[in-house]
Amino acid sequence: MSTHFFKSNRRHFLGALALGASSAFTVRGAFAEELTRTPTTNEGPFFPNKLPLDTDNDLLIINDAITPAVGEVTHLSGRLLDAKGAPLRNAVIEIWQCDRDGIYLKQHTRDGDPFDTNFQGYGRFLTSSTGEYYFRTIKPVPYHGRPAAHIHARIWKGDKKLLTTECFIKGSPKNEQDGQFKQIRARDPKGHETLCLDFAAIKGSKIGELAAKWDIVLGYSPEA
């Protein structure tokens, strides 16, 4: 997978703002033991069969549109690390999720299902030198067939796919009704905990914005 598609646009400030305000950077050797690796999950049937024209990290605004997507605005950020805590830079993180009404972009483009056309439904980000990434999106919601709200993610380094995974809303009662959620927990209880995120209200936000932090840990070394 090539990374030539990363060009400057008017919304890059979103990533710069989020990364600049993040907590202390990870330092090589700061961890005495290996970190818990992020479990792999199924890709699912709804990865877009046709990517939107806008594929940046702001899923709420498409190109230069004025009307934003409907949903609870969420700032999703974190770091991409190896098992020793070293950052993985210049890796591509893709995310995709359904709109506020539980419809995926693929269902819209393939089957004509109604979809929030102001929601991008898919985005990608090139990790920084410290392994950090940032997306502005909506809080995930359930859809027909999957009770647990979630956001899918894939990680690439060059043309090599390193991981396919997903995150959930920590403490959601719908999680226990979801087969995928329970399968991951049964297979990897410790890793499963790293997929459950707090979607916390941002203090002082006048529109009820949320923030979720997700550090993704690979069984991969930057030197490999």
UniProtKB/TrEMBL annotation:
Q: Does the keyword Nucleotide-binding apply?
A: no
Residue ranges of the Intradiol ring-cleavage dioxygenases domain?
Answer: 76-104
Query: Is the keyword Signal in the record?
Result: yes
Read off the Pfam families from this record. Dioxygenase_C
- Name any one GO molecular function: protocatechuate 3,4-dioxygenase activity
SUPFAM superfamilies reported for this sequence = Aromatic compound dioxygenase (SSF49482)
| InterPro entries for this protein | Intradiol_dOase_C (IPR000627), Intradiol_dOase_core (IPR015889), Intradiol_RC_Dioxygenase (IPR050770), TAT_signal (IPR006311)
**Leader sequence residues:** 1-32
Q: Which keywords belong to this entry? A: Dioxygenase, Oxidoreductase, Signal
Q: What is its EC number?
A: 1.13.11.3
Q: Which family does it belong to?
A: Belongs to the intradiol ring-cleavage dioxygenase family.
Q: What is this protein called?
A: Protocatechuate 3,4-dioxygenase beta chain
Source taxonomy: Bacteria, Pseudomonadati, Planctomycetota, Planctomycetia, Isosphaerales
